[in-house]
Amino acid sequence: MGLVVQKYGGSSVADAEGIKRVAKRIVEARKNGHQVVVVVSAMGDTTDELIDLAGEVSPIPSGREFDMLLTAGERISMALLAMAIKNLGHEALSFTGSQAGVITDSVHNKARIIDVTPGRIQGAIDQGAVAIVAGFQGVSQTTKDITTLGRGGSDTTAVALACALGAESCEIYTDVDGVFTADPRVVKKARKIDEIPFEDMLELAISGTKVLLGRCVEYARRYDMPIHVRSSFSGHQGTWVRNKPEGARAGMEQAIISGVAHDTSEAKITVVGVPDKPGEAAMIFRAIADAELNIDMVVQNVSAASTGLTDISFTLPKTDGHKAMEALTRAQPGIGFESLRYDDQIAKISLVGAGMRTNPGVTATFFEALSNSGVNIELISTSEIRISVVTREDEVAEAVRAVHTAFGLDSESDEAVVYGGTGR
Amino acid sequence: MGLVVQKYGGSSVADAEGIKRVAKRIVEARKNGHQVVVVVSAMGDTTDELIDLAGEVSPIPSGREFDMLLTAGERISMALLAMAIKNLGHEALSFTGSQAGVITDSVHNKARIIDVTPGRIQGAIDQGAVAIVAGFQGVSQTTKDITTLGRGGSDTTAVALACALGAESCEIYTDVDGVFTADPRVVKKARKIDEIPFEDMLELAISGTKVLLGRCVEYARRYDMPIHVRSSFSGHQGTWVRNKPEGARAGMEQAIISGVAHDTSEAKITVVGVPDKPGEAAMIFRAIADAELNIDMVVQNVSAASTGLTDISFTLPKTDGHKAMEALTRAQPGIGFESLRYDDQIAKISLVGAGMRTNPGVTATFFEALSNSGVNIELISTSEIRISVVTREDEVAEAVRAVHTAFGLDSESDEAVVYGGTGR
């Protein structure tokens, strides 16, 4: 039995009862012979309450002070959790991100981890203690100021520590049973995925599946660290995110569909009447990049020969929509397009799985399923293991269910989901 | 205009409004040309709420984790205060006790400061920023664990930083106007003291005056750091605690009474029928010391020649009374006294001022005042600048008022309070 890193989110440690429940689960892992490092988030709504307080004293709080403020949240939960474990007769020591050696860059509120030096954590577990580490926080390598890692930061802390400590695996405890073939709130027949490769999980995450964020999956993939996503409220096995042995995968030529993700958080901007000559698209996306906005899907329509003009559409988070429209409006004279269209009533639906490109039937089945349920496709984008389409937002539930059924993902079948492509 | 250290307690920063009020006061000091270092406590009842949470998860929380938990409180208040100051257009940076270089021993929950290395604080003020420092907390020199300084710790942080930084003075902001000649809730005519020497303030503090704790006064005296105790709710001058120039004091042979303190937090234990022979008293106080209890006043009665037995009485905090009685009961067979009496209905009244010993009229006036108002004296203890007596608890208010009046401290007189001794 080796070392395991466990991460508990805010809903798992929302109150004293929750903390005691989590403490028992940790002690169980100790009793089973594991060394345990625990990464914990702030209790329940603590972080939101601190954000509200900051808003009361200052409309635009400083990033450095905001990080100092927010990191008080994990300090409370980790100390209480350590006390609760000690109360069950096991040794436990809590550590801040800085004490745990989580070294970051100096970008407050969304720092990136650049090194992990977990000497004190290793010392604690060598002594037989459970090490409790504050998630979401680190210390800047250059300024020595306290930083926070931004959205989903605690998951990243857990994976980074697991990698640095050479853990067997990283367990991410949450309030659902694992990763599902589609959002169970939309697709009642969605099935829990027992095992999924890093690449597929990464595509699902960036396509709208909320359970894990792409950032922590990316980190785990780089270091080949298995992640086990599971519920802190049950003892069930959850979803393992890890690489199959090479042989197992290479021997299989069929497409293996992991799941269907959807995302309604994006908007579509169409730049109408762009002169179809070299450099035009570059100017458009330079204007967006200069405004520090990230875009997702991009499609350029075929140019109409009669006018020499084309349209370029792209999607980006709704929250960035206003900024993007402003940036493009400012750039319009230099670029010389005709007009802009903004549309935030869209949804993105993505099918994720291995072997798609070599199994053209997958794309056909996907589009047929949408067409049969009357869903119109507005944009298409594909990667090695993903096909995404943009549809109307109010059609998304129907579209996801249709695709889920078409690929045999519905839970009547107890077998592994395999789609054998048969040509276009 | 030099450097000033300001300390604000929990009641001054209890909510967003309080924090903004304090921020304005700090900015005023900056506008007046001062460099400012601020020491801040946790907001309002934060610390008590965290203590309650700890009690919910563990009946006997670990000292290390308890300190980790409690230090979240100042982290919140200091970050918010820094934001509020920045919002007024002035630069501000917050620092934990550890970042501020407050180095302590490893005794959790009541650590003592052993060094202050305020390099980062000096750097911040050199840049023109206000440095906000978390009070009450430090970092252990040997274990690098977070520690707290115990009761009144934030005042001690402020004085220690003022000394290390070579500040002009240390301002302790509180919810009263300063130090008074007696507790204004008991003596309506009590006057605010404009200036008081360290020694007198120290005696008042250990005799029951709550505004400053002896610990921080002791620290300030050692480094000759002037303390200004004042209200954060008004602009009034408060009480300066500092040494008079040597000449000013030495030239004056009259007794100068600083004030009357009282304390109802102690109990009296009388050991009855102790054999009057060498070593008996030592055995009694060894038993108390072995139980790690501190005692305050001690009086041994004159032995009755007929029996060869004597009584020994002492006072100690009520909270330690039970432990002391247990320790003495266990030691009774070895010591051989007759019985124990416990009395927690007592009060201690202390008169503090310079020149008492050489002005015997002071003692006489003190005892006459008590006698004239029908107050019986049970124990007496004196130091160079203090006389303390123990009376019944229910007589304390009357006794304090009588003494206050007898020494001309009542506020009708606007002059400095001087008592000219005239012999016994």
TrEMBL record, chains A, B:
EC number from the UniProt entry: 2.7.2.4
Keywords from the UniProt entry: Amino-acid biosynthesis, ATP-binding, Diaminopimelate biosynthesis, Kinase, Lysine biosynthesis, Nucleotide-binding, Transferase
UniProt pathway annotation: Amino-acid biosynthesis; L-lysine biosynthesis via DAP pathway; (S)-tetrahydrodipicolinate from L-aspartate: step 1/4; Amino-acid biosynthesis; L-threonine biosynthesis; L-threonine from L-aspartate: step 1/5; Amino-acid biosynthesis; L-methionine biosynthesis via de novo pathway; L-homoserine from L-aspartate: step 1/3
Entries under SUPFAM superfamilies matching the protein: ACT-like, Carbamate kinase-like
Xref: CDD domains: AAK_AKii-LysC-BS, ACT_AK-LysC-DapG-like_2, ACT_AKii-LysC-BS-like_1
GO molecular function terms attached to this record: aspartate kinase activity
Function: Catalyzes the phosphorylation of the beta-carboxyl group of aspartic acid with ATP to yield 4-phospho-L-aspartate, which is involved in the branched biosynthetic pathway leading to the biosynthesis of amino acids lysine, threonine, isoleucine and methionine.
PANTHER family registered for this protein in UniProt: ASPARTATE KINASE (PTHR21499), ASPARTOKINASE (PTHR21499:SF3)
UniProt name for this protein: Aspartokinase
Species this chain originates from: Streptomyces polyrhachis
